[in-house]
Fold each of these.
Amino acid sequence: MSEVQITRWWWVRHAPVTEDGGRVYGQSDPLANVSDIASFKALAQVLPRDAVWVASHLRRTHQTAEAVAAHGPGMPSLAVETDLAEQCFGDWQGQVRADVYKNHGLPHKFWLAPARTRPPGKGGESFVEVIERVKRCVDRLSVAHAGRDIVAFAHGGTIRAALAIASACPPEVALSFAIDNLSLTRLDHIDPTGSSTAWRVNGVNYPPRPDYLLNGAAA
């Protein structure tokens, strides 16, 4: 009987965007604020050393990875995965968030739009569509790096999509997960190359503090 392989996903949400002017940014590309040195040091302390590092193509994830690496043993090669990008909000990107809510009457309390709503305009996608593309990437990387650690620097929507996949919860429920900037979410893909694959949720939205990370997320 072959040994069951566990592929460990370490999801890190990017550092905060503080100069967005209250506007929707989605897949636009603002800079992140990487001044929170204590959080980067905590993440560098707990993230596994021999891991595959991946990030979306948006620079705020790259800035975050670089800031973590600056306080650890250095950064391994960072693979860019466009399927790990934030949800594209189409014509809403660049608009003031309050105006989007006012003009479109969106009822969702936790996210810019309900899970099945596709924003208008070029590239606009629903959260359900985000789940589909994130799943393509996660399934492929879990097989390619079976049995290893994968550190993914991503976005709030992306990590909620990963939680929808791992927990098999409805998209509307996945949107209720709190995913703070620089938080860590730990998911295990069990036997990703076998016939009976499964997921285990180890922890969600761990704050980047050593007492939380070392006593919980590193398990």
Amino acid sequence: MTPSEKLYDAVMRLPIELFEAYFLVREAQGIRQLVAEHPYIGGDWSFVATLFARLSVVAFIVVLIVLHLVRLRPVRKYSDWLPKLAALAGATLIYLILLTPRAPADRLWDGLSAGITIAGAVLAMLAALDLGRAVSVMPEARRLVVEGLYRRIRHPLYLAQEIAAIGFFLQYRSWQAALILLVHFYIQLRRMDWEERILAEAFPDYAQYRRRSWRLVPGVY
């Protein structure tokens, strides 16, 4: 890769990195304020559940930032803008939930949110280890990964993101957050369509891989 190509790739990563960094700082400041208002935890398990729920959101954002930093350059990508716009919306829309009012602290909901969000973050990290530097925001072909989680599931990273998104939602529990979540799910499904199409064009073995694997949940879909 030439210096100019490296510079171009770095610049193209910058908007999504800055977008995610904004929400990372915003959530970190919120946690700092939360702890400042409740410095003595003691046996307050409701506060502990709320704190872990908030920390799980931060952990997931950090995972996404790292994934976008280490990606490879694509070997094939779309020239038209619709798949790119859908990918951008899928990567950013879920953060709008963080701009809606949070529901009152609740030990049960916050504990469930923390568990689900952390599960999504852990699954995302495992999928990222399998992908290596092939992770992508746009529907682009970098290299074909068919090992690890990808042996049976074609989109485990998307699955991880949706699990974490449900975890996010449980901290808000509003019709606005539910609407954002549903729109996000739909856009993610469209992203998978475009991603599978570009991978099939770039890698002849992809058609056989698609026949022996499941899109998201083995035995279901």
Amino acid sequence: MASDWRDRTVDRSLRNQRARALQKSSRFIDAAGELLAESGRTDFTVQEIVDRSGQSVRAFYQHFAGKDDLMLAVFEHTIEQFSTELRRNTDKAEDPIEKLRLYVEAFHRSLERAGNAGRALSVFHLHLAQDRPAEFASALAPQMALLAEIVDAGVAAGELRTDIDTKVLVLLVTQALMSVAQLHVLGLHSGARLSKRDLWAWVQGAVSH
């Protein structure tokens, strides 16, 4: 067709623009991540983020509506990376129960290395769940989808309880794990040290027959 070259030119231009936009956005996300890791707080300013990224305020507002929008992107990026790690760990096993154990243990390892950034994101997580629940649910979707795959396989294999709907079971396990994570990283665990063995024993008891 006569317009093929035009379509290719437009497509190439749009791809290049998208790549540049993602590269600039990533620099802002990385800068925010560095500030979180250093301070353990989320009260840094847009100007601090801009200075750390080496870009301009104008560029910032071309990519994000404001600081909360950037923090949402940081949260989404963190959950995406974590979900990739969870899947990489669970892919080591075939049996659904073993997959679930690896999932829980990987979750526990994330608590041990949470650090300042983990504490700050836990505080933001609470804010996000309250003020922007739709975006919060969307950010958690990859993590919950993986758990749903494991639970569905476990139920199909007759290894997990069937008296609770699988969607509800996934929600309960997710809420329990995230609550444990928040208590841990915020230092609200009353001095109790939660081992990965403890966490797995609790989850296994909750979901098994």
Amino acid sequence: MERRLVITVDGPAGSGKSTVSRILAKRVSYMYLDTGLLYRAVAWQAMQRGVFITDDEAIGKLCDGVTIPLKTGGEMRVLVDGKDVSAKLRTEEIGMIASSVSAIPAVREALLPLQRSAERQGGIVAEGRDMGTVVFPDADVKFFLDADVDERARRRHLQLLEDGKNANRGEVKRGLAVRDHQDTTRKIAPLKPAGDSVVIDTTGLDIAGVVSKMAMIVEERAQGGGPAS
């Protein structure tokens, strides 16, 4: 019988990790865990309630009502006080706030058990920025996706337009650069590949090719093969 693996997918915004993680989870019939949505849910609550992101204690308390119904494949949903707010969390403004919120120790401490609760069930694809380094350091397979900032800005701009949102590509690129700096320089769990990650530069690669490469590595490990490479 194949082992039910813990798979992590880390990388900066626009690297393609969300798209390929969802597809990979469906392909191998695993649970999809988008941890970035958890931080976005906290950021959304801060906006709704007028809580300043400099108030670490107040921000930390916002984590109490965040829950995730775990299921296999498909889109992950995030609930706040029992209400599904997933559709409200994908704006650039919330993404910027979430990047700051994710650096608050109280928030990371509060959300860590929620993230790790999925590990006990096995068979998960966990996507985020510190999945392989902090949340699941003993994951069976770790991926780190990256792409140059121009390509990531193009993808994010196109995604926003497809979602019916007004967006300026130059502003999107500047926003990504700011988030990259915040994520890679924060003192707690900075964005970086784990030492045993499979690093994939997705610049110029199509989604199908990236997913196929990842699925092949996952299948080999599930069958008891050696370390991913």
